[in-house]
Amino acid sequence: MDIEQKQAEIIDLFVKRASVSKGDTLASILREATSHPSLFAFSEILLLPYVAELLCMQLKGTTNSVYLDLDVLRLFAHGTWSDYKCNTGCIPQLVPDQLLKLKQLTVLTLAEINKVLPYDLLMPELDIKNVRELEDFLINECMYLFLSKAFLD
């Protein structure tokens, strides 16, 4: 099974579960989805009617306990590590699996924008202090997972 097919199956699973859930159950599914080690696409979940309705209610100032999890879901769908760091007071603290995934998604986002990703761009974007740590992250957490095909130079 190739990575795209596996990704589609995982997305389908979470979409099905989220589409029949509300309240705390939905919040739990959103936390599970953003922590899942093989799920890297979240737009389908954001497009579900109930989730979209909650997002509209949130914009109107209605309160609901699931909103913080919606903020995390939006971050994973459209944000980066830098976005998280700039909004730590507004977004719940992420668990280690979520932190890793957000950094992986940041690499993917940057790779979509730039064909070449210089280390001096990646290190501050990922909050990594040295080249060795960056190379270990790129090799072990991105390339081995087939998230990106790259050459290190």
Automatic annotation (TrEMBL):
Keyword annotations: Signalosome
Domain of life from the UniProt record: Eukaryota
Keyword hit for Nucleotidyltransferase: no
One GO cellular component, as annotated: COP9 signalosome
PROSITE patterns: PCI
Keyword Nucleotide-binding: no
InterPro entries from the UniProt entry: COPS7/eIF3m (IPR045237), PCI_dom (IPR000717)
Domain PCI intervals: 1-153
Protein family (similarity comment): Belongs to the CSN7/EIF3M family. CSN7 subfamily.
Protein name as annotated: PCI domain-containing protein
